[in-house]
Amino acid sequence: MAIRIFASTFNILFGTNEKVFESIKRLSEMGASNDLAFLAFQEVRKNPKIKDIKEKLEASLEQKNLSYYMHHADTVNHLGLALASNIKYTTTHNLKLPQLNKLPWRIQSYFLDQMPLCGAIINTYNIEGKVLGVVNMHLDIGGGFKHKLNQVRSVKNYLETLHCDYEIIMGDFNTIGTVKVLFPLIRWQSKKIQQLFGTDYKITNTEKTYTSDIRGVVNPALPLKKLVEFTKKKGFAWEQKLDWIITKNLIIEKSTVRHDLIGSDHYPVCAVLKI
């Protein structure tokens, strides 16, 4: 009998907008209607309006098995990851991704106590005697696509040591490129990611569907906030494909980007999969 899996990835923008928790609750309900549910969240960060972001997140979820990878620093440019599921993981791994080692980032490292955390949570689960690996990762905003691909490669290499029968790889890849203007760039990035993983892997959501629009809720940590607000008034499209779900040895029944679930500068990417 087939096992139905609900998977989603959602950058929640520190929880700065209360509506994001309504969206999380809806995702949790969608997950509960399937046999298995895996919900990946990025930018699970401290917020002056929220005393405990973990407590707030957990209150919105039906899935109570959570893994966290959170930076100890309080500054807004440090990131946090959470991975929720409706079954207990067998093993959990926190992986720090390769950092930029070129100017100006190398100079920056001399002046900051802590550099931004770009990393991944990798959990394994026992599914009827088989190993399912689930990844939640957040790649660098800075640096070119080559650097981001190198970060993805480090995750893939680590996954290979876990010998998973099935894999779900999710997260905010920060693959910069607006859907309307730079679609050929997005298609090229998608092709390179596919080549890196190989033909056993499938990318779930379509290339032409945007997963982020920073005109909606402007990231408070974004250095270009004023530029975004100016171009927003001029009607410039900031619709980008930043978020991905990639699978191995799983049947993709359905995949979508939920533009109706709001509260962040990202939208949840969701997939229903089958074993």
UniProtKB/TrEMBL annotation:
<dbReference type="InterPro" id="IPR036691">
    <property type="entry name" value="Endo/exonu/phosph_ase_sf"/>
</dbReference>
<protein>
    <recommendedName>
        <fullName>Endonuclease/exonuclease/phosphatase domain-containing protein</fullName>
    </recommendedName>
</protein>
